[in-house]
């Protein structure tokens, strides 16, 4: 089975997989064959983490784009200049779009 198949199967059975730093966190009911499931996840940890990372890219990118568009509209409407972090957000959105990850 591929990491995508395993992640889909686990989620369909009520498990939640998430990245916590460089660790993989699994929450949910105890697997019937817990030792085998944990062993498989340990052996394929890097692949599962990479899969989880790619799942989040469109969500983050979309949120950045929406925020950036709103900020541009506010600036055009004469809103006061926002704090410097806003420029960082706009730059990150631009960079994502330029790289094609948005």
Topology:
Layout: H1 3-12, E1 16-20, E2 23-27, H2 34-43, H3 45-76, H4 84-99
Antiparallel strand pairs: 1-2
Helix pairs in contact: 3-4
Describe the structure.
By secondary structure, the protein is mainly alpha-helical. The protein folds into 2 domains: 53 residues, no CATH class; 43 residues, no CATH class. Helices cover 67% and strands 10% of the residues. It contains 4 helices and 2 strands. A hairpin with a 2-residue loop joins strand 1 and strand 2. Helix 3 packs across helix 4. The longest helix has 32 residues. It is elongated. 4% of the residues are buried.
Spatially, the strands of the biggest sheet line up as: 1-2
Number of individual domains: 2
Quote the distance from N terminus to C terminus. 29 Å
How many helices? The count is 4
Beta-strand content bin = 5-15%
Q: How many beta-strand runs?
A: 2
Based on Cα principal axes, name the global outline: elongated
Order of helices and strands: HEEHHH
């Amino acid at each position: 089975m591929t990491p995508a198949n395993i992640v889909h199967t686990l989620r369909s059975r009520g498990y939640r997989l998430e990245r916590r730093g460089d660790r993989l966190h699994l929450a949910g009911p105890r697997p019937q064959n817990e030792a085998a499931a944990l062993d498989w996840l340990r052996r394929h940890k890097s692949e599962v983490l990479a899969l989880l990372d790619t799942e989040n890219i469109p969500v983050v990118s979309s949120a950045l784009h929406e925020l950036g568009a709103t900020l541009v509209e506010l600036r055009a409407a004469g809103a006061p200049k926002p704090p410097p972090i806003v420029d960082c957000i706009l730059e990150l959105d631009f960079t994502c779009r330029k790289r094609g990850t948005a």
